[in-house]
Amino acid sequence: MRTTVGIIGAGPAGLLLARLLHDAGIDSVVLESRDRAYVEQRQRAGILEQGTVDVLRAAGAGERMDREGLPHDGIELRFAGRRHRVDFPALTGGRSVTVYAQTEVCKDLIALQLRDGGPLLFEAEALAVEDTDSPRVRFRHEGAEGVLECDYVVGCDGFWGVARKAIPAELTQVFERTYPFGWLGILADVAPSHDELVYARHDRGFALLSMRSPSVSRLYLQVPAGTEAEEWGDEEIWDELERRFETADGWRLERGPITQKSVTPMRSYVHEPMRHGRLFLAGDAAHIVPPTGAKGLNLAVGDVVTFARALVHREETGSAELLDAYSATCLRRVWQAERFSYDMTTMLHRVPGATPFEDRLQLARLERIAGSRAAETDLAEGYTGFPFG
Ligand code: RFL
Ligand code: PHB
Question: Could you tell me the sign of the dihedral formed by the alpha carbons of 197, 76, 303, 21, in that order?
Answer without folding.
Answer: positive
